Amino acid sequence: MEGVWLVVLVLALFALRQPVMVMLGLAALFAYMVWNDGDPKYVVYDIWQAVNKEVLLAIPLFMLAGAIMSRGSIADRLIAFLRALTRPVPGGLALATVLACAGFAAISGSAAVTLLAVGSIMYKALLEAGYDKGFAIGALCAGGVLGIIIPPSIPLILYGVMTDTSIADLFIAGLGPAIVLVALFGAYALTRNWSRHEGSWSFSEIVRTFRRAAFALPLPIIILGGIYAGFFTPTEAAAVAVAVAVLVEVLIHRDLGLSELKDVTLETSRLLGGLFPVLLFAISLNIFLTYEQTPQNFVAAMEQTIDSKLQFLLMANILLLVVGMVIDIGSAVLILSPLLTPLAQSYGIDPVHFGIIMIVNLGVGYLTPPLGLNIIVAMAAFRESFWTISKAVAPFILLMLAGLILIAALPQVALFLVG
Fold first, then answer.
1. Which of 14, 215, 366, 399 stands the most exposed, by the fewest C-beta atoms within 10 Å?
2. What does the alpha-carbon distance between residue 55 and residue 232 come to, in Å, rounded to a whole number?
3. Distance (Å, rounded) from C-alpha 250 to C-alpha 65?
C-alpha cells in the first residue's frame, strides 16, 4: 500500500508541475519515513555517499570545458576547416554543417551548446548560400542532438552513475551509433542539396584553415583515445579537457580573457546548482529502491507479461519515446534507468548497449513537441515560430528513428569497440 501512495505522491507533484528536484526529494523522504521507521536521516547519508563518487566530477568538468570552447573560437575554426574540405562537393555546405555539429559535439557533450555554437555561424551561411530555411533549421537542430550521443556526453555519464555501468565503455560505445546518425544526416543533406555547387578545392585555403584549427582537431582524439588506451579515467579526461580548453582559448588563441573565463565558470556553476540536487536525490531514492529490491520485483513482474527480448525492446522504446516528449533527458535517465536496465539485462541485453539505446531514443525528444529542448533553443536562436521549427525537424526525426531501429537491432553497432 505504501508503494501506491509513493506513486500517487509522484503523480500529484507531476500534475502540479513541480520541479523534478522537489519530486525526487519528497519521494526519497517519503520512502524513508514510511519504510524506514520514520527516519529521514538516511537521505543525508545517501547524498554523502553519492557526493563521494569520484566519477561525478566528470560532469562539471566536461560542462565547463564545453562552455569555454563554445565561448571561444574553436567552433568557428573547426567550421572554416570543414567548409574548405567540402567546398567542391554538391551540397557541400550542408554536409559541412552536419560534420561541424559532430565535431563540436565531440568536445562539448551538450545538445543545446552544439546547436548554439554551430548554428550561430552556419545558419546565416546556409541562408546566404541559398539553402532552404527549413533544411537549415532542421539540420542544425538534429545535428545538435549529436552532442548527447557523441562522447563526452553528460547523459551517458548520468546513466553510468545510476546503473553502475562503465562510463569509459559507454563513451566508446557511443562512437558507432554516432557514425550511423552522422551518415544518415549527411546522406540526406547531400541528396536534398545535390544541385548546389560551392566551388572548387583551394589547397591554400585548406592549409590556412587547418593551421587555425590545428589545436581544436586533436581534442576528441586526446579525450577518447586517452580513455580507451587506459591513460586516464573519464574523470581525469574531463580535467584534461578543461586544461586544454583553457590553454587553447586563453593562452594560444587568446579569444577568451580571464574575466570572461571567470564569467563562464560562474555560469557553469549556476547550471550545476540546478543539476546536482536532482542527481543526488535521485541517487538516494535509487539506493533505497535497490535496498528494498524494487528493481528485482519489477523485473519479476514484467517477465510475466513480456515474453521475449523483442517485446521488451518494443515496449521500452515506445515508453522512452513518449517520456522524451514531456520530460528532459536528465530527469528521464535518473528516473527510468535504474528500473529499465535490470529488466533489459534479464532479457540478455548488455547494459552498455541499452544505455546507448536509451540516450539515442531520448535524444529524439529534443526534436519533438511539446517540450523538445532544441526546438525551444532554436526559437530563440533563429527567431522562428514553434510550428516552423517543428515542421523543419520532421525529416530528421524519421532519420533518427531509422538509426534507432538499426542500433537496437544490431548490438555490435554500439559494442564493436567495447572490451
1. 14
2. 12
3. 12
Look at residues 101, 94, 104, 83 and name the one whose alpha carbon lies nearest to residue 136: 94
Residue 112 C-alpha from the chain's centroid: 9
User: Which residue in 72, 67, 127, 69 sits closest to 97, CA to CA?
Assistant: 127
Nearest to 371 by CA among 386, 392, 351: 386
Q: Say what the pLDDT of residue 402 is.
A: 96
Cell of 198: 560551392
Instruction: Reply yes or no on whether the pLDDT at 358 is more than 90.
Output: yes
Q: Report the alpha-carbon distance of residue 150 to residue 109 in Å, rounded.
A: 7
CA 6 distance to own-chain centroid? 30
From the CB of residue 268, how many other CB atoms can be counted at a distance below 10 Å? 18
- Dist. CA 280–CA 273, nearest whole Å: 11
Give the count of beta carbons closer than 10 Å to the beta carbon of residue 378.
Answer: 29
Reported as a pLDDT band with limits 50, 70 and 90, residue 300 is confident
Mean pLDDT of 384-412: 93
Q: Count CA within 13 A, CB hemisphere, residue 165.
A: 27
Cα–Cα distance for residue pair 103/118, rounded to 1 Å = 10
C-alpha cell at 347: 532479457
What is the average per-residue pLDDT within 360-387?
86
**C-alpha separations of 100 from 54, 96, 129, 189, 349 in Å:** 32, 6, 17, 13, 33
pTM above 0.90, yes or no: no
Coil, strand or helix at 254? coil
Q: Name the DSSP class of 153.
A: -
DSSP assignment of 186-243 equals HHHHHHHTTT-------HHHHHHHHHHTTTTTTHHHHHHHHHHTTSS-HHHHHHHHHH
Q: How confident is the model at residue 406, as a pLDDT?
A: 95
**b vs e for 136-166, b when ≥16 Cβ sit within 10 Å of the residue's Cβ?**
bbbbbbbbbbbbbbbbbbbbbbbbbbbbebb
Evaluate whether 259 touches 251 at the Cβ level (below 8 Å): no
Asked if 117 contacts 219 with a C-beta cutoff of 8 angstroms, the reply is: no
- CA torsion sign, 254 to 260 to 264 to 265? positive
- For 348, left (φ over 0), alpha (ψ -120 to 50), or beta? left
